[in-house]
Design goal:
The chain is mostly helical and 182 residues long. Helix content is 49%, strand content 10%. Helix 1 (6-17) packs across helix 2 and helix 2 (25-35) crosses helix 3 (42-54). The relative contact order is 0.11.
Length: 182
């Protein structure tokens, strides 16, 4: 399979590592190598597992936790839909007490779906028990969050902390600016 751009590459890695849980970084490395047609020799597994151990550690953008708590205090229902790597996501949920903040957490490796698949958005709405017209998707990926939500009929707001899409509207550059949009 020829990869045309970074998005194609990212999607291929996500399909390999984020559609089901990995028991450990060695299983993840083996899966990734095999899916990319690279021999899963011990040396290759060792190198890739080392890289996986150093990366994939997500952390909230500045002011995210405070803003989420303020939204929660104002009785907004909150949800996460994440294409996530199982070996790091659970740590992030625990470290930042995300289960206490979010009403629903939809994770790709638990549901076997990746954004931009509309079924992942449908599942979230069902769990939240809300209709599309009452939802705002806030995301930092133009294709997987913003365009995917819009194609499913959900309003969206680009969170562009890294200023990758200055031409896009509606957009905010900090999560705290969401209040001016609501």
């Amino acid at each position: 399979m020829k990869l045309e751009n970074n998005y194609d590459f990212e999607k291929r890695v996500e399909k390999s590592l984020m559609l089901s849980p990995c028991l450990d970084k060695f299983e993840a490395a083996n899966r990734l190598l095999t899916d990319f047609g690279i021999s899963p020799e011990k040396e290759n597994i060792s190198k890739v597992s080392e890289i996986l151990g150093m990366s994939w550690r997500a952390k909230p953008y500045p002011q995210t936790l405070e803003t989420l708590q303020e939204l929660k205090d104002k009785d907004y229902k909150l949800a996460i839909i994440s294409n996530a790597f199982s070996l790091s996501f659970e740590e992030v949920v625990s470290e930042y007490a995300l289960a206490e903040i979010f009403d629903v957490i939809i994770v790709s490796y638990e549901v076997g779906l990746l954004k931009p698949d509309p079924r992942i958005f449908k599942r979230c709405l069902e769990k939240l028990k809300v209709k599309k017209d009452k939802v705002l998707m806030v995301g930092d990926s133009l294709k997987d969050d913003i365009e995917a939500a819009q194609s499913f009929g959900i309003k969206s707001l680009m969170l562009d902390n890294k200023n990758k899409h200055p031409e896009y509207s509606p957009r905010v550059t900090s999560i705290k600016d969401i209040f001016s949009y609501l």
